TrEMBL record:
Domain Lipoyl-binding stretches: 24-106
Gene that encodes it: gcvH
Upper classification of the organism: Archaea, Methanobacteriati, Methanobacteriota, Stenosarchaea group, Halobacteria
Protein name: Probable glycine cleavage system H protein
Keywords attached to this entry: Lipoyl
Species assigned in the record: Haloarcula amylolytica JCM 13557
An annotated GO BP: protein lipoylation
């Protein structure tokens, strides 16, 4: 099975993605991650203003199969949270790289652990 791995993103080995635009980053989980989890039923995210540290957990995704921590690909301050996920956690399954985004972060520092799309494809294949 082949999963969508957009070329404009960077990835963590733990299956989070980051889309960097200037000093802002959008963060979510990958198509591979949502497939492994199965149907997502609950998402716990930090509040706006929370400080994230790259490589540390910032939230939880709960599915019918498992509960999984979600890790920050960048350090910085949360500037927006996708509130739709509170009522529509299935957006993570339906559109993990679009409507299923989780956070926007003002970047203080990027993780040294970010993978290129090619390296992430190698990991999941």
């Amino acid at each position: 099975m082949s999963f969508d791995v957009p070329d404009d993103l960077r990835y963590l080995e733990s299956h989070e993605w980051v889309r960097v635009s200037g000093d802002t980053a959008e963060v979510g989980i990958t198509a591979f991650a949502q497939d492994e989890l199965g149907d997502v039923v609950f998402v716990e995210l930090p509040e706006e203003g929370a400080e994230l540290t790259a490589g540390e957990d910032f939230g939880v995704v709960e599915s019918i199969k498992a509960v999984s921590d979600v890790y920050a690909p960048v350090s910085g301050t949360v500037t927006a949270v996708n509130d739709r996920l509170r009522d529509e956690p299935e957006l993570l399954n339906e559109d993990p790289f679009g409507d299923g985004w989780m956070l926007e972060v003002e970047i203080a520092d990027e993780s040294d652990e970010l993978l290129s799309p090619a390296a992430y494809r190698d990991q999941i294949e």
